[in-house]
Amino acid sequence: MKIRYFDHAATTPVRDEVIKEMLPYFGIEYGNASVMYSLGRNAKRAIKKAREQVAYALNADINEIYFTSCGSESDNLAIKGFAYENKNRGNHIITSKIEHHAVLDSCKSLEKEGFNITYLDVDKNGIVDIQELMNSITPKTILISIMYANNEIGTIEPIEEIGKIAKQKNIIFHTDAVQAIGNAKIDVKKLNIDMLSLSGHKFYAPKGVGALYIRDGIKVRKLQDGGEQESNMRAGTENVAEIVGLGKAIELIYNEFDNYNLKLKELRDYFINSVKNKFDEIKINGDMNKRLSGNANISFKGINGSELLFKLDNFGICASAGSACSTSNPEPSNVLTAIGLEKEYLDGTLRFSFGKDNTKEDVDYLISKLVEIIK
Fold first, then answer.
1. Alpha-carbon span 195 to 60, nearest angstrom
2. pLDDT tens sequence across 193-250
3. Cβ(198)–Cβ(181) under 8 Å?
């Protein structure tokens, strides 16, 4: 049975070009980047190249990029590491109610240690209220952490406005951009972003590698003890092959940015319009204009979403009920709850996220099976 994959927000397949770039570092170029002989120097050069590729994609400086294991680690290091290092300046952090759990749980952990956290509301489309953000700022506010784009409903937040406010108030601004890489052109200097988290497996690099941008001059406390890798920011031998893969993948995705996003948007809009024509009692969640190109989050009234997913899987269709990081949680999605989605739609919410290999024929097959199962 052919697999039709519509869950690229959960993870993406690794591109052939990325695998090819990585392969030497599993065998021939197996050196540890911390050693002095040629094998080690080759590994160090490969990491430097990947750092340059990430920095170029973000318009950052090469010394501002730190490699991690994933987006969640990057979020933890940014939020906790900054809070611990700067608690003498203040103990107040502002975030939103629809953040990824790596951000929310980091903030909850800090609350137990005496930090004061403000969780901003969002409107029905998942957009934070700029006025509420400004009203929440106090003399003790040291950090604002608002995601670039939501992982469930695809809404893109007013990042430029938030960055301006943070800069004017001398507050550090972190954004979880895990879903945005490849789907938005990000200039950290223009947008006044001070820290940014990303994860390779969202843009056709392998799982298990991410990065954190930290603007030069910002002090962040190291959370892992051990060696002095990553400019003494993260202990542990570098995962050279996967770092190389991340660098190649981010270079490729931005080289193809316009065509890639145009294709995803066309597939998404075709799918959403088709579903609207086939079903009456549905809701499209998230802002339709300020939205990730490949995201379609749809709620079917009175439908059991988990059962629908299993039935789709029987036809070789892969989709999601929400964030892949929280699918084992029986509680309603914090995102859908925050946007005020009615109870009769909550259980029937599915996320379809499109990728570079999807076709119109794949989408037609998906629509036909949704009709067959639901009706």
1. 11
2. 999 999 999 999 999 999 999 999 999 999 988 988 988 889 999 999 999 999 999 9
3. yes
Q: What is the DSSP letter of 192?
A: T
CATH code for position 278:
3.90.1150.10
Please indicate, yes or no, whether residues 223 and 279 belong to a single structural domain of this protein. Answer: no
Q: How far apart are CA 196 and CA 212, in angstroms?
A: 6
How much is the pTM? 0.95
CA 6 – CA 359 distance, rounded (Å): 11
**Domain containing 176: what range?**
16-255
* Helix (H/G/I), strand (E/B), else coil: 210: strand
User: CA 233, CA 178: separation in Å to the nearest integer?
Assistant: 20
Domain boundary among 233, 255, 277: 255
Active-site residues, by number, are 325
**Is 250 in the same domain as 269?**
no
Digit-coded pLDDT (tens) for 2-50: 999 999 999 999 999 999 999 999 999 999 888 889 988 999 999 999 9
Between the CA atoms of 97, 99, 103 and 104, what dihedral angle is there, to the nearest 10 degrees?
30
A 10 A CB-CB count for 77 gives 26
Nearest-CA neighbor of 178 among 205, 210, 156? 210
Q: Sign of the CA dihedral 225, 173, 105, 180?
A: negative
